[in-house]
Design brief:
Pfam families: ABC_tran (PF00005). Residues 10-230 form the ABC transporter domain. The strands form 2 sheets. A 6-stranded mixed beta sheet has the order 6-7-8-3-9-10, sandwiched between helices. It has helices spanning 49-56, 77-80, 103-113, 118-131, 147-159, 177-189, 201-207; strands at residues 8-20, 23-34, 38-42, 64-69, 72-73, 87-90, 165-169, 193-197, 210-215, 218-221. A hairpin with a 2-residue loop joins strand 9 (210-215) and strand 10. It has 2 domains: 1-86 and 163-233, Rossmann fold (3-Layer(aba) Sandwich); 93-161, no CATH class. It is built from 7 helices and 10 strands.
Length: 233
Amino acid sequence: MNAAAAPVLLRVEALRFRHAPRRPLLEDVTLALHAGERLGLAGANGSGKSTLLQVLMGLLPAQDGTIELLGTRCRDERDFAPLRGRVGLLFQDSDDQLFCPTVEEDVAFGPLNQGLPAAQVREVVARTLARLGLEHLRERPIPHLSGGEKRLVALAGLLAMEPEVLLLDEPTTGLDERAQEHLAALLQALPQAMLVVSHDAAFLQAVTHRRLALRDGRLQPAPAPAARYSWTP
């Protein structure tokens, strides 16, 4: 894709975050995500990938640097809060994201809070569940879902709000190979800009336009893996 011609929806410059003074986790992180672009992020366990996504959503405070979301310079909760419906974060642990009694209620929660009328919300829920192949789970209690089902329902809850940017933290966790392939095809077809964190280098290669690796607190180009998926991004 011609990213240079598309507007920048997420811009980060010289971002720094430390859990403790002697442990820098993010050090001088700079990146830009353009409209329609899918950017992959790889890195070892504990390298700071999930932390970076949480900092970008204002859930953890950066010690230094700038964050700009959808044209807004975000410094504190007053700046981040109005944008969280337009920027959606898929948490690494789905149990941190699902809190309503049933699948239908959980997917409806975001659109209802956006102020959509009940009839329109029902249409959004039906359309979103159909897109992910989850219609059969509509009335299922959340505690009765498998780990992979929870993963997809959490994603459905984000997509129902029609965000402009998706931050996806290990979206394939708990999914079998068939479900992963379905998810990859879905992500390729979505119009939203995405920052996708995954340990699966082949999955990132298949679904993203470019890939970076987080190492020693800094971003660098990620090496291309041997292809595992049959399609190309």
